[in-house]
Each structure stands twice: as C-alpha cells, then as structure tokens.
Amino acid sequence: MMGKDIPVVQSNVDEAIAHRWGSSEITPQNQGIHRVLTSIAAWYPDHEFVGNSNILEWFLGRKPITFEQYLRRELPLLGVPVT
Fold first, then answer.
1. pLDDT at position 49, please?
2. Are 63 and 56 in contact (CB under 8 A)?
3. What's the confidence (pLDDT) of residue 69?
C-alpha cells in the first residue's frame, strides 16, 4: 500500500543479545535484558502483541507523518484541492 515491504524477522534471545553486545554470552551488563527478552520470548507466542507508539517510527526509519500531512500530500494527486 505504501510501496515499502516490511519483512518479519524473528530471532531468538541469544541472537538479539549477540546483535546488541557482539556476543550471546551473558554478562553483568546484559544479564537484566537477557531476563527481560527471555520473558518476552516466552509470553508473546501465546498472546497478542499490541506494540507501542515507537514501532511505526522504527519500521519506517523516520518519524511518521500526521494524518493531515498524509491528506495534504495525497488529495492533490486525486485532483482534490486542499486549502
């Protein structure tokens, strides 16, 4: 719809830790986040993930535009004047 495919990428806790800290080894620096990610990984397969207001920005790699900005951009393309 927006011309941008957003792939679904699944990773396990060790891959996420390794991506952030360069190693999947549990250290004092990543011990807390490891517990949190393990808890999340156990919870979400059986429950809906609602998300938060940052997700769209993370997907787009930029701040999303407002609905008004969207309409001001798109309506003229449909021949609808915008004031």
1. 67
2. no
3. 92
**Tokens at residue 57, please?**
């920005």
2 pLDDT more than 80 = no
pTM: 0.45
In one-letter notation, the amino acid at residue 63 is K
Between CA 70 and CA 79 the distance in angstroms is 15
| Helical axes 13-21 vs 31-43, angle rounded to 10° | 150
Q: Count each helix (H run) and each strand (E run) in the chain, helices first.
A: 4, 0
Instruction: In whole angstroms, give the CA distance from residue 43 to residue 47.
Output: 6
